Every structure is written in structure tokens, then in C-alpha cells.
Amino acid sequence: MRNFKAPRLTVVVLATVFSISLSNCAVQVGTNNNSAKSKPLPPGQAKKITGEKSAKNYAPGHNK
Q1: Model's pTM, two decimal places?
Q2: Which of 16, 50, 39 minimizes the C-alpha distance to 8?
Q3: Which of 18, 31, 43, 44 is an S-S bond match for 58, by CB 3.0 to 4.6 Å?
Q4: Burial tier of 43 (Cβ tally within 10 Å: 0-12, 13-18, 19+)
Q5: Which of 49, 52, 54 is closest to 64 using CA atoms?
Q6: By C-alpha distance, which of 36, 42, 39, 38 is closest to 60?
Q7: Nearest by Cα to 59 from 45, 36, 35, 39
Q8: Are 41 and 52 in contact (CB under 8 A)?
Q9: What is the rounded CA–CA span in Å between residue 60 and residue 39?
Q10: In degrees, to the nearest 5, what angle opens at C-alpha 39 toward C-alphas 37 and 41?
Q11: Residues 43, 55: contact at Cβ < 8 Å?
Q12: Is 32 buried (19+), middle (13-18) or exposed (0-12) by CB count in 10 A?
């Protein structure tokens, strides 16, 4: 059986192609500040944050 030794140019070309293919990967890191997709705060949680005794002021449809 014969051992195949790749020429130096072939190794360099393959390493270059591999490096370029990895460098084209784009990664985005960040937060999504889209308020349309986020759920509104429940009335009970809003009451806890503000420290009020009643959640009636934060419930939709229960405005007096």
C-alpha cells in the first residue's frame, strides 16, 4: 500500500478555504426589545411593585 503525501500547496488551499468558510458565520448577540411580543404585566404583579393594597387600578376593564 502506498502512502499519499499531499503537496504543500493543496494543504494551504484547503486550510484557506476552511478558514474562509468559518469566518462567514454571523452571530448576533443582543436583547429583543420588541414590546409588541411581550405580555403586559398582570394586575397583581403591578400592585406588588407599587405597593398598593388593591390591584383594581391595574386591571383592564375595572377602571373607576
Answers
A1: 0.36
A2: 16
A3: 43
A4: middle
A5: 54
A6: 42
A7: 45
A8: no
A9: 14
A10: 150
A11: yes
A12: exposed
The DSSP line for 16-51 is HHHHHHHHT----------TTTSPPPPHHHHHHHHT
Place of cell 436583547: 31
* Residue 18 pLDDT: 85
CB atoms within 10 A of CB 40: 10
Amino acid (1-letter code) at residue 53: K
Tens-digit pLDDT string for the chain (64 aa): 566 666 888 888 988 888 887 776 666 666 666 555 667 888 888 888 889 888 888 887 765 5
